Protein: Membrane protein
Amino acid sequence: MTLLHTIYLIAITAEAMSGAIMGMRRGMDLFGICMLGTVTALGGGTARDILLGHYPVGWIANPEYLSFTIGAAIVTAMIARHMHHLRQIFLLVDGLGLVAFTVIGCGVGLEMEAHPSIVVLAGVITGIFGGLLRDILCNQVPLVMQRELYATVALFTGVFYVGMLWLEVNSSLATLLALGSGFLFRVLAMTFGWKLPDFQGKEIRGLD
Amino acid sequence: MTLLHTIYLIAITAEAMSGAIMGMRRGMDLFGICMLGTVTALGGGTARDILLGHYPVGWIANPEYLSFTIGAAIVTAMIARHMHHLRQIFLLVDGLGLVAFTVIGCGVGLEMEAHPSIVVLAGVITGIFGGLLRDILCNQVPLVMQRELYATVALFTGVFYVGMLWLEVNSSLATLLALGSGFLFRVLAMTFGWKLPDFQGKEIRGLD
Amino acid sequence: MTLLHTIYLIAITAEAMSGAIMGMRRGMDLFGICMLGTVTALGGGTARDILLGHYPVGWIANPEYLSFTIGAAIVTAMIARHMHHLRQIFLLVDGLGLVAFTVIGCGVGLEMEAHPSIVVLAGVITGIFGGLLRDILCNQVPLVMQRELYATVALFTGVFYVGMLWLEVNSSLATLLALGSGFLFRVLAMTFGWKLPDFQGKEIRGLD
Structure:
């Protein structure tokens, strides 16, 4: 599936760059920047593989992925001062990456012959866990748990993709439609500021 | 073992609700709340399974567990304003869950034919890692490392359970006695505020 | 490989002590101190084994390692007030542990017949992930991502070790030379305050 693989390589490069930027903003050194970029890019697939027991983990079977993420982080460290001009492009590539990661993750779940709900979840985990691990390493509550339709886009993409396969839509067509509709959903969510309900948390008394 | 399984389902529901409440208090959106509830409820068994290499992980083999935790989190999001009235009941169900998780975790260790100390540890990890992962996602030092007899109750329950099996006590009886004595220990610890020693930390100079 | 194993046992003891000290400084109770010491000492090898799918995980196959780390943490809790006198010795043992962990981790990668870059990375992960997990549990950005040549020493040691094996140097000699040169590098880095470049992070605008 060449298109999906190409999108994947572009996406891990972009994710590594955005992780590297966040590391620089937190005063990390060059090692920390490379590591944060790599975790952001490859953490989702790694979490999925470990949870599913799908060995070898992606980047261990394909160490060249590490060249992409480490290379991207180093380039970022050199040109970061100018990268905010590219912010719009990054948001679009990030959205494309989110849906591509999700479709790829669903594919791994299917290959493991998991229950359909687990297949979708494998996609969602692949889509969001890189950013979640990045935020934990940066010592902040994961953004994905707080705001914007991000995980929801992954969930929609996964359900849509698995649903089409269940309807026996041709696999390449299902991939294209899932990528397209998921990406459109993400762009619309960003454009119009769609978000899930949250709650005036401070008023709520805890149970512990 | 039907009683233990019933307690397990009640316990993951209660844990998911308490995780959801904590997510709401931190201003998470609906996805974050469902995720935090699920991690709190199922994180302990997941950590145990990954560390032991016990695949498939519990909720991947039994995706219906996810319906319990996600359903519990959504219900919590709707009724949270009134749940503090149930605080006492939650503390009791949480204590029962802690000992049930521990006994179930020991069972997985036994099934893997691990060393007795690892069997006990598998129980302790099952009992406490859900809350530990919840606290990491909420960006705070895990409560279980700081105060109260919580991990100690899990340790006691695990040692007691494995000890009775070693003494060739009937398995169902050992389960009942471990659940009962562990739960009693937890209730006494809460009632009388028992805690482990800690240390005037700030006076101590670091080594790094 | 008796020398390496002896160094390993000394190193996990010292790492457990330094983790325990950090737990005491954060006001953790005795359970938290034992757990933080154990995670600091054994977390690197655990992360490596899970990522590589190398089961059983080290301390599950060798539960006696837990006696070392828990024993070391308890002793530390008793004598911590006097341990800062030993700071210099700790830094040296920590440096020796870093290179020993790295060489041992490379050995596991070789045993799994991984790609050379993954072998080196298995060493680096073994060397640094204990401290990284310790810092996450203490709710701070991992030190290893921020300052000093620490990960770089592990990387150098791993590349040097794997390179010598590739040049068909005798395995024991390669181990000794890697330990010696890695340790020397670490001592020089500490003595002269060598560090990787970092970046005036706050000026850089984010992409998210």
